[in-house]
Known about the structure:
By secondary structure, this protein is of the alpha+beta class. It has one domain: Glutamine Phosphoribosylpyrophosphate, subunit 1, domain 1. Helix content is 25%, strand content 29%. The strands form 2 sheets. It has a 7-stranded antiparallel β-sheet with strand order 3-2-4-1-10-9-11. A 6-stranded antiparallel β-sheet has the order 5-6-7-8-12-13, covered by helices on one side. Strand 7 and strand 8 form a beta hairpin. Helix 4 runs parallel beside helix 6 and helix 6 crosses helix 7. The mean pLDDT is 92.
Amino acid sequence: MCRLYGFRSSVDSHVHRSLVAAENALAVQSRRHGDGWGIAYYVDRFPHLIRNDRQAMSDSLFREVSGVVATKTFLAHIRKATVGSVGVLNCHPFQHGAWTFAHNGEIAGFAEDPAIRERARALVDERFRRFILGATDSEICFYLFLSHLNRLVDDVHSPGVGTRRVVDALRRVVEQLLELDGGSGSLLTFLITNGNVLLGYRRRRELFYSTHKSQCGERDTCPAFEAARCEQEPRDGIVKHLILASETPDEGPNVWQELEEDGFVAVGHGMNLTRGGLLNLS
Length: 282
């Protein structure tokens, strides 16, 4: 069982507290998830990806990076290996162009059954299959998502890809994987972003999200502060941040909610928030 963390913010935000300094920071969580780590942070629309197969808590690189990164879009993952060996190629997030992806869970039967592994890989379009470098089901999930997205938009690399198309592509991924596992119960909790759209989806692994704070510690200094959006749940669907985490980092000012089973939450262009059930969305 891996751990996930990510955010999309209207202003550049530092990551040190959530990765290292908070009471339940990712570094602390890596005591139980010590098979590697990875982060993706965006500069303009381009992701910078750093991964290592060491335990995050004992890795000086993890601490050094956490101290300098400030970004509007961020994804982090710490790994407990269940499928694939411990190695950099099997560490999340995975990246293709502007898209980055992290997964907590596994396709049922993937580790034990070569036939399921072959069938899962065959679902990925040939265009993307050649980019699969590691041995995890998670990387296959990522390129399967891109395969479906590619059928729905003119260009998967366009920064204008909208939330609805991302949701539609992910729905098709989950439907195919549930058909593949024959009802065995795949664990499919995902974070996906291209730097503009950020989406979290939960299936059989917990995921929490925050869209506002109880009280912002920077309310007197932040030029983007708006009490109606920053310190209460916005009523017009526009947020200042969306934070996603498999475990909440601490008991700080962020107000957390648990995402419902089969639920997704996403923020897109203009920081517009979308929530719903993935497989029952009209």
